[in-house]
Amino acid sequence: MANHGSIVQKSPIGFDSAKVKQITDILNPDLATLFELFELWEKHQWYVRGSEYKELHSCFDAWAEHSLQHADAVAERIVTVGGIPLDPTTFPQASVFQFEPAGVPAVREMLQSQLNALNQLFTKLRSDIPQLDQIGDPASAILLRNILLEHEKFAKKISLYLEKAGIVYELTQGQP
């Protein structure tokens, strides 16, 4: 059995083994985080209740689908550069955010949990993009830029729901 996170083959696109390892080490936590985000939104769309049910259920379902598609794109990119994507059983440990405790959260807690997870993803992606550019992998950087841009739109919508509900939230740690 192959060692996950290592090099699977000679890079089909010409990266040396050191670059493949660097790129794989950067992208694997992004893969894990996007998949965990997919699971978070799936959980929330199953449990959402209240007057905003229909709209939130639809949003959560669509956002889950986008996160899953992005996770797949990151995994495919890892393979393309010559690496091995993480095994899905390791996603909870490799993700940049910790999944919320078991149970059925209130809608406001769902939204805050989603926003917190997204902001942790944003921090990671904003760190990864210049690293990938510096390594010489602009294609992976572009992929992450597109993921960042789309997920920032989700965060904006979540923040609007939180404002609508009169909830005070923090977009970044320590700043209201």
Automatic annotation (TrEMBL):
<dbReference type="InterPro" id="IPR012347">
    <property type="entry name" value="Ferritin-like"/>
</dbReference>
<feature type="domain" description="Ferritin/DPS">
    <location>
        <begin position="25"/>
        <end position="164"/>
    </location>
</feature>
<comment type="similarity">
    <text>Belongs to the Dps family.</text>
</comment>
<dbReference type="Pfam" id="PF00210">
    <property type="entry name" value="Ferritin"/>
</dbReference>
<dbReference type="InterPro" id="IPR008331">
    <property type="entry name" value="Ferritin_DPS_dom"/>
</dbReference>
<protein>
    <submittedName>
        <fullName>Ferritin-like domain-containing protein</fullName>
    </submittedName>
</protein>
<dbReference type="InterPro" id="IPR002177">
    <property type="entry name" value="DPS_DNA-bd"/>
</dbReference>
<dbReference type="InterPro" id="IPR009078">
    <property type="entry name" value="Ferritin-like_SF"/>
</dbReference>
